[in-house]
Amino acid sequence: MFDKYLKRVEPNIGGPGAATLHTTPAPSQSTHDTRIMRKRSKSKGSGVDRHLKLTAEQKCDIAQREIEELRDDIGKLKEESEKIIDTYKAGMEEADVRLSELKKSSYEFERDILKGAVNQRSGKVVGEKIIRYFEDKHRARDALIEKLRLKNSTLKVQKKKLHLQLKQKEEMGEVLHEVDFQQLKIENSQYLEKIDERNQDLLRLKLMAGNTLQVLNAYKKKLQTLTLESDRLKSEISSRNELLVKIDQETETVEQERIKAEEANRRLRQQLDDYRVPEVVEYVKEKAELYELSKTVKSWERKVEIADMALKTHRKTWQQMKMASHQQQQGWPMEAI
C-alpha cells in the first residue's frame, strides 16, 4: 500500500520502502517532521542519508487516501463494467431481434417462393413471383430506412433543443448538482429497466404472432386441400349421377324390349298350342322358324339377365357412394370444430 502511495505521489523515487520514506516529507507531516529535520541538520558528521520511519497517524492518513483512491477506482471500474454490460445486452437484444427477423424472412420466403411460387406442371419456381417478392422486400426496407431517417432527424432536433435548454440553464445559473445527476441516473436506470421489459414483451408478442401465423397458414393449407377434395367429390358425384341416369334409360329400354319379346313368345306359344299338324314340308319350315325364334328368345332372355345384373351392380355402387358421401359430410363439421 505504501509503495503504491509513494509511486503515485513521487513516481521518480523508487525502492521497496514499505514502512519508511525518504527525507522529503509528505504534506501532512507537521511539527514532528520539522523536529526530525532539525536533528538531522545538527548531525552533520554523519554523511549517510538515513530513512525516517512513519508514525501511526501518517500511516493512517496514507491508508485512508489509498482506500479513497481504491473506492474511486472501483466506482470507475463499476461504471465502465455497467456500460460494457449494457453494450453487450443491447448487442444480444439486437442479435435476438435480427435472428427472429431472419427466421420470419426465411419462413416467408419458403412459404411464398419455394412452395407457393412453384409451377405445378413444370415443377420450377416462377421467376416473376421471385422478382415481385424481392421488389416488395426492397420497398419495405426503403420505407423502414425512410422511417428511421425521419426518426433520426427528430431525435437530432430534440437533442439540439435539449442542448439549448441546458445552455440557457447554465447561463441562468441553474446548473445541476451531483445529487441531481445521481437522481437522474437512478431515474434513467429505472426507465431503462422499463424499456427492457417492454422490449421483452414486444419480442414475446412477435413470437406469438409468428406462431399464430404459422398455425393460420397450416389451417389455410388444410382448408385448401379439403376444398379441392370437395370439388373433386362433387365432380365425381355429378358424373356418377349422369352415368346412373344413362343406366336407368338403358334399363327401361331393355325392359321394354323384354316385354315385347315375352309378348312375342306368348303369342308364338299360343300359336304352337293352336297348331294342327300340317304337311311335312310345312312342318319342317315351321320347325326351322320355331328354332330361329327360340334362339332369338334365348338371346333376349340372356340380354335381360345381363341388364338385370348390371342394374343391381350399379344400384349397389350408387348406394355405397351415397353412404360414403354422407359419412364425409358428417366428418367435415367435426374436423372444423
Give an overview of the whole structure:
This protein is mostly helical and 337 residues long. Helix content is 83%, strand content 1%. It has helices at residues 2-9, 31-42, 56-115, 127-172, 178-273, 280-336; strands at 20-21, 52-53. It has a two-stranded antiparallel sheet with strand order 1-2. Helix 5 (178-273) runs antiparallel to helix 6 (280-336). The longest helix has 96 residues, at 178-273. It is rod-shaped and about 175 Å long. Residues 14-50 have low confidence and may be disordered.
Largest sheet: 2 strands, antiparallel
Principal-axes geometry comes out as: rod-shaped
- Helix/strand/pairing class, anyone? mainly alpha
- Termini separation: 79 Å
Helix content: over 70%
H/E element string? HEHEHHHH
State the oligomer.
Answer: single chain
In the sheet with the most strands, the strands line up as: 1-2
The number of distinct β-strands equals 2
Low-confidence stretches: 14-50
Mean pLDDT across all amino acids = 79
Strand content: under 5%
What is the C-alpha radius of gyration, as a whole number of Å?
54 Å
Number of H/I helices: 6
